[in-house]
Amino acid sequence: MRDTFHDELDQIGTELVDMSRMVASAMSRATSALLDADIALAEEVISDDERVDETYRDLDDRALDVLARQQPVATDLRTIVTTLRIIADLERMGDLAQHIAKVARMRYPQSAVPPELQSTIRDMGTVAGKVIAKAGAVIATQDASTAIELEKDDDAMDTLHRKLFATLLSDEWAHGVEPAIDITLIGRYYERFADHAVSVARRVVYLVTGEMPVAL
Amino acid sequence: MRDTFHDELDQIGTELVDMSRMVASAMSRATSALLDADIALAEEVISDDERVDETYRDLDDRALDVLARQQPVATDLRTIVTTLRIIADLERMGDLAQHIAKVARMRYPQSAVPPELQSTIRDMGTVAGKVIAKAGAVIATQDASTAIELEKDDDAMDTLHRKLFATLLSDEWAHGVEPAIDITLIGRYYERFADHAVSVARRVVYLVTGEMPVAL
Fold this sequence. Notes:
homodimer; mainly alpha; Methane Monooxygenase Hydroxylase, Chain G, domain 1
């Protein structure tokens, strides 16, 4: 039979995976809102971030409470500290999805993304979906090979990010400064989103193996 | 006589303040490197970030070690957890100074900052110096009134950030898209730097009072 500590930790782990799904949904909807200039969807993502924040506070409180009551040592202690850090990463990823939705809202009824960049941003949204799904899977399964795949997705995000800049700086760019500012910020938000997903996966792998994955 | 736990915690606190000075120096030099297109200074900030990261790892290890060995409860436990979070904030602030230095390096021998924006960026650098100095002071003194002042500096940073965008979007902007991208990213780095300083101060105040400061 499991003891109370491990039951509580398992429960928090399950809800962390739920939180990762909440963040995945926010990012997916933020990308759609951005590409389609969908103001209702943008508003939804912006207001739903309060739910992500509530989940953050709830899980953070409970993890601290377990830490205070159970006085874990060794691996158990490392697990709780890692959990606290992952909760913070996911909360920040929710913020980044919200930032993207805010750009969508600011430019409505236009899309902040000019036609020639729609496919790149769509691809960045797809990669964002992959990295958060894999971060959730790594939390659930502690599988290091998924963490290594996630690093490759992050490389793909960096490639897309460079492509974004190349388009902004090409002679064909005819949209001027304001959309360039939007795209620069949007690109940064997607990139940071993937960075945090990598961070989540690395934390789990480090917890399980005591070492960073080989590919990192 | 203090016990071992509080001695260790005090020692970590002192080194946290040292770390905040290291980050302050990095940000100050990054701003000079950026404004003066000083490649040597930019390279120095970029390579010195490794020292900030080493300090991060050292303090993080030691705080975790204290947590594992001393099994603190109540306020002591909250202090250690808060310390872990502040260490992470300061590490990230070091990264942001490094990012600014990298923009300076990328545009050398030009300055990434056009003449009409030099004073705004200089002001952002000044405010960045204020917020990190105050964050260090709040860590050292746990003084809530300094934390409230820091919030006002953060408001000043937001005002400068908006001024930056206003210049980029004005009819007088004659530098095109590439410098606008640089300035957008630089502005974001300064803004995030101040956000993390606010976060440090809020964490300390919350630790001391159990409540967020009135002005927050």
